[in-house]
Specification:
330 residues; alpha+beta; Replication Fork Single-Stranded DNA Binding Protein; two-stranded antiparallel ribbon; 8 helices
Length: 330
């Protein structure tokens, strides 16, 4: 288990690195976004089972690809597919490689935000005070999927020198209180905070840790795309920018929207999970919190993002748009 000092050092190093850069469900998941306005839930975080993880969370980054319906289906509604951004693994993301320069052109900024990666953070722990009327899973160790607003509160507190103990310490840890209010018509979690007093795990909580063990948070990252799948992601991105409909025959073996069945082509490839409707976080347009895993789809919410209204149904093809952007770079 990493110490608080190690966590602070890693957070500070990450901040410095960023500053130098150019600009379905599993009931183990606790749905804090379903709380009523004015409600709060008390959580107790636990460490990652993976001792090599300095933090007690793991970051995920997904990209939404919107399509104008489904090819071959009359009057089909717009759909979207979520794909993993391979920057999670330190690789070059083909979508972000194209999108980053768009922010240098004011006429393309909205389009850039539309295709930017959406971050979320996976934690685990106990729900000590629960305002929701829900059936709890047999294993009381829950997973928490949080957007940047809540994560930034957690991160800022960890960097506070007044916090002397690691929040996940079994004997001297502290609880985190998620408070749901509203701002501008959207859910707001800015008043969430840490408890003032330390507390040890209860006998029942310690027994649960001993009996069930901790989750390895890496298990809740999406499957890393291989070279062929990266090629498919790039084709999907170009079709999306072009305003085309989703082609199930072309892409269904790899990535699918929610509710779209795999075409019967006789092939038996592994299919990425369907994308479930996800509530999102309004903190910034470039950091929302819908998430998807290799073995389950999880909806996470904080507040809806105001998606820029961009008309991609016109006559310009994706390659024409991309060619225009590349020429402007030159």
């Amino acid at each position: 288990m990493a110490s608080l000092a190690e966590i602070r050092a890693r957070l500070a190093a990450a901040d410095n690195k960023q500053g130098n850069q150019t600009s379905g469900g599993d009931n183990a998941i606790y749905p804090h976004w379903n709380m009523n306005e004015g409600d709060s839930a008390t959580l107790r975080f636990l460490p990652d089972a993976d001792n090599s993880n300095t933090f007690f969370w793991i970051e995920r980054a997904m990209i939404k690809l919107p399509f104008n319906g489904i090819k071959g289906q009359m009057d089909s509604k717009s759909v979207q597919v979520q794909v993993p951004c391979v920057e999670m693994w330190g690789d070059t993301c083909p979508i972000l490689t194209e999108v980053r320069p768009w922010f240098k052109d004011s006429s393309l900024e909205d389009m850039g935000r539309k295709y930017w990666k959406k971050k979320s953070y996976v934690f685990q722990g106990f729900v000590r005070e629960n305002p929701l009327d829900e059936e709890s899973p047999e294993n009381p160790i829950r997973r928490f999927i949080m957007g940047p607003q809540l994560f930034n509160i957690i991160k800022a507190s960890l960097m506070d020198p007044d916090m002397e103990e690691l929040p996940t310490d079994y004997s001297k840890g502290i609880d985190f209180r998620v408070v749901k209010t509203s701002k501008g018509g959207y859910a707001d979690y800015s008043t969430s905070n840490w408890a003032r007093k330390e507390s040890a795990l209860t006998e029942a909580e310690q027994k649960a840790v001993d009996s069930y063990g901790l989750f390895d948070l890496n298990d809740f990252l999406p499957k890393k795309p291989n070279e062929a799948e990266l090629g498919i992601i790039k084709q999907m991105f170009e079709d999306s920018v072009d305003g085309k409909a989703y082609d199930a025959e072309k892409f269904g073996q790899y990535f699918r929207p929610s509710g779209v069945q795999l075409p019967d082509t006789g092939n038996a490839k592994t299919v990425a999970p369907a994308t479930a409707p996800a509530e999102t976080n309004q903190t910034t347009a470039t950091e929302t919190a819908p998430v998807e895993t290799a073995n389950t789809t999880e909806a996470v919410a904080e507040t809806p993002v105001e998606t820029p209204s961009v008309d991609t149904s016109g006559g310009q093809r994706a390659e024409d748009i991309l060619a225009m952007i590349r020429s402007r770079q030159k």
